[in-house]
What does this fold into?
Amino acid sequence: MIKTGLINRKGGVAKSTSAVNLAAVAGKRGYKTLLIDLDPQGSCTTSLGIDELAIEHNFILEDYAATRMFLEKVPPSLLTIDTGAGFDIIPAGSDLMKLEQFIPTVPNGDSLLLRVFNADKDLDYDIIIFDTPGFMGHIVASVMNVTGDYCISNLASPGSTRCLIDVLEMSSSINEFRESLGSSPVKLRGHFFCRAEPQTRIHTEQDQEVAEVLHDAHKKDFYISKATDIQQSEKHCRPIVTLMPEHKVSQEYEKLFDELFKELKQ
It folds into this structure.
């Protein structure tokens, strides 16, 4: 089972869009895929129309909320919903921000989610992708501990490299804890730019800056182009890779998936 999280210390960097579309690519490829929405904004949940789905099929969305894994230690396998887009989701729910205060009250709270996952013997997926908040906190630390693996979605802006510092520092801190337990270190699967305009000077400059920090982990040639059609796909509550599979952005997500998950070809 592959588990990874989409992480950055700020919002508006297409984490949720990338999580949804990478999950959709995985589903199209025939991999049993779960997307877990741990972003308090619930962008994955709303962009896929899960709230409307709950009304249509007469179930209570909060019964499947991701918070229940923390607050009630509910196994994730009991919280999944079929999105109809080729993969399942555990939706955000309405009170994810409470977790930032709750997790520190639990002994070894940042590993609570890991313990819940390890106890779930019925969780059967090929790929699990987590969407996360746009800040470094206990939810992100929890995801890193579960996955041991993360991706950074980013924008090519003057703050691109500054945004990496907090992520790398948290990863380093978690690795100290994991080393004490004899666990393998958290690894960066890849960094990529979204809403990219590769012909611009700022994109070229940020490509070089990030590569100096992350080296091969920066996926220089696997950016996601800026396109208004992504917003159009969200209006239809479908990932762009399934709504418009021939679209340039859809093809870029397909190529990015292949680059990020190279082990699936082995």
Remarks:
- The mean pLDDT is 92.
- The radius of gyration is 18 Å.
- The first strand starts at residue 2 and ends at 7.
- The beta strands are 2-7, 33-37, 81-82, 88-90, 127-131, 149-154, 187-193.
